[in-house]
Amino acid sequence: MKLMKLRATLWLLLLISTPAVCPGAGASPPIRQTSTSWQLDLPDHPVSRRISLRSEFKGKQTFGTLIGPGCIRRIWVTGNFISRKDILRIYFDGETIPSVEAPLPDFFGLMHNLTQPGKNYQINSPFLSVKPKLGMTCYLPMPFAKGARIEVESPEGSIVYMMVDWHDYPGQQLKEKMRFRARWRRESPVADFADDFIMLDAAGPGRLIGFVYAVDMLESRHKMRWSHGGADNIYIDGLGDQPSFLRGIGGEDTFGASHGGADYVPQTFLYSDMPYYIQKDAKGERQKLVGYRFFAKDEVHFNESLHIRFGARAHDISSTAYWYSEEPVRPYFKMPPVKQRLPQTKILRGEYDLPLPDSGSWWLAGPFAKVESLPMRDGKFNPKKSFLDRAWKKRDSIRGFVEFNHVLRPKASNANSPTLDGWAVAYCKLEAQSEMTAEFRLAWDDHLILKLNDDPTVDLGSQPYIRTRTLKVKLLKGTNKLQVWLSNQVGVTRGAWNFAFRATAPNSRIILPRSE
């Protein structure tokens, strides 16, 4: 009897100490459901693989040729003599244009060529990691269907250690169409308080992952604060059905910092932060900094296009942008020679920038106190003649967006992202092959009014933030003249002053606006 009681007691203790198991609790969830997979549709049963290699080389060196279907899960790099001179390229599925092209350290978020072991700053995020003595890791998943090739080009020679951990899917099918993309760009000095620093241009559909942004101040903060040239300006689907525009307040706010960041203590957090922030002089008049921002919890999707610029003053600025897209990379920046990759060298807008997709052009003028009638002597528009003492300025559309803030800015100052009040007008011509009923799709915030040819003015009203509206219009055969007036207030989108425009013919052909 005592033995039976002892056994019963032991069984009771075992039941109490054993955790309850719900059906499926011990099963690993599909990879696509994890928080670091960016909603990628990946097979459920991966086989883990690894490539690890040390190479002392000069010129181009292939570090891995992976056979698909698969997905790169982690890339770790360290070495000797690594610098911004070295270029990382990654190709997927037989591409001739690399999906990834960036200086090796900059790809991992290590900017300003701060690659001397023991002197580099550190990053601790779920996506990028930089440790003391130059241990650099990327955890962003990179799927491929047929294959992947990882290449490093070192023009002067270096020693590189690399580990690539990836998932192989033998006998399975990769349904995911998105591919990982990354691009680097540098400009020094940026045109002061002008049309912003170009960070990214991509065709959709896709998703924005994030970016790393680096500033080396060339002027005193008392004269030219880095943070008060503006912030992130994200143009989404300008020629699509539902355009959107995301605008920040100040540069430091993009990275979760505040109040100018002039005395910011460098730190590194999960999704956004500024891991590097130093005073370049004893008085603290010039800073050198790096910020990163990942859109993991506030996803940014795009269907037709994505374009990102960052408000900037005349400093040395560079960035690395990361995104997923179905369409191959359309290069918008050509990798400059070694000298112009390095800090303290000049590289101006246009030297290595490639043309952006053509989405039309307009004449812009303003600001005005109210909407006025354009003088049309003999039915002709003369951009050489000022309108109410305001000169006309020609600007290309930005993926379907017309941006007044790039030409109607106040005098550059240390005010917090200043903007002008009033009305501005955009003028263009629309060429129709025949008389037709076309569709105009406009998206805007504030108050928008348009006038087509000699038709009555159409007041589309005010909106608190950018929303879309479509309307049917009669186009004459030949040249049609369009005016779009838009007011500007600081508002809930912090001084956004742009609209997105698309004109569509009955045969679904887009009619591009032309300034000439």
TrEMBL record:
List the InterPro entries hit by this protein, alphabetically: DUF2961
User: Which residues constitute the signal peptide according to the record?
Assistant: 1-27
UniProt-listed Gene3D superfamilies: 2.60.120.1390
Its domain of life? Bacteria
Keyword terms: Signal
Write down a Pfam family by its short name.
DUF2961
Task: Decide whether keyword Signal is in the record.
Answer: yes
Name used for this protein in its record:
DUF2961 domain-containing protein
Source species of the chain: Gimesia aquarii
